[in-house]
Amino acid sequence: MKRKRTTERYTLADLDSWREATREVKPPIRLGVFGDPVAHSLSPQMQNAALRACKIDMQYARFHVRANELRSALHVLTELDFIGVNLTVPHKITALVSMDEVDERAARAGAVNTVRVRDKKLIASNTDGEGFLRAIRSEFSVDLRDLRVVVIGAGGGSGRAIAMQCALENCERLVLVNRTFEKAKALADQLRPFFAGPRVLGPAARLEAVPWDEPLLRAQFAQVDLVVNATPLGMNPSDSTPIPARLLAPHLMVFDTVYGAQPTPLVRAAREAGARAANGLSMLLHQGALAFETWFGREAPLDVMRAAL
Ligand code: NAP
Description:
Layout: E1 9-11, H1 12-16, H2 18-21, E2 29-35, H3 43-53, E3 59-64, H4 70-79, E4 84-87, E5 101-102, H5 104-109, E6 114-118, E7 121-125, H6 128-140, E8 148-152, H7 157-168, E9 173-178, H8 181-191, E10 207-211, H9 214-221, E11 226-229, E12 253-256, H10 265-272, E13 276-278, H11 281-296, H12 302-308
Bound molecules: NADP nicotinamide-adenine-dinucleotide phosphate.
NADP nicotinamide-adenine-dinucleotide phosphate binds next to helix 7 and helix 11.
């Protein structure tokens, strides 16, 4: 049979008749990413390059799965010969209830970005936090533990994983900001034990949840080193920057988890303000390499994956 590589986007309807829908696809699709939207995802090109380099005869595809379809789509996987999937916006938190087992990283973050299928069971993991840690090191040549960090969008799946990683690293300060303030406050309560010890000289609390309010953010930005955008703002070309440019200053490092071919609005605004800035490509790379290792129990070909991006 002719070998056919796929760049298509599949749906729940395709999963429901998977063998028929992919009869002509070779090598078979046994990995993928579920999201809504999902067209922007660069995971397929990165993971497919890794699969080819490791001579693993399978493909990774995009699946457009809406919030109300997630449970069914995950369930279908257990009936097919999938290795696993990644989950992206908006599924990382809601997916937890569909899992049969949840590993320590996913349980701590309260979110799942990597699912393994084993013996018809779904096993949740999370590589976003560790991927973020590695990305910050490679983009800014600094360690998270030395930084005062503000996470915008801390109530979302990625924001939670990033905030938990900051707590595990015992960073100097952590400020949590979220459109729905209650989620940032609840997360701060959960993370409080990590910040019990004193560390920074000065009056600022080591851990704070702060409402999304410009004067409050301005005051916080004077007391942080790293600003992280974990909201999806910037994914659409028409999006404005999640943080007004007038709040950005040269002393800041700005990390936008959003990525794309062009600099995101936030990265552009940060650079114009004289700050160092990076988009989410390096996080994509590292979380993807860790996901590959979760699925296959072998080292991911990082250089091949980087080149594919
Ligand atoms: P999610 O679970 O749906 O969370 C979205 C977060 O953004 C929530 O905190 C939400 O606040 C906030 N938000 C959504 N729309 C907003 C708006 N218009 N204004 C202000 N806040 C808004 O999504 P996710 O899975 O965490 O993904 C978030 C982003 O991170 C996506 O763009 C994704 O591409 C990116 N990401 C990148 C990587 C990477 O490897 N580079 C990895 C993971 C995620 P509420 O709580 O108020 O709803």
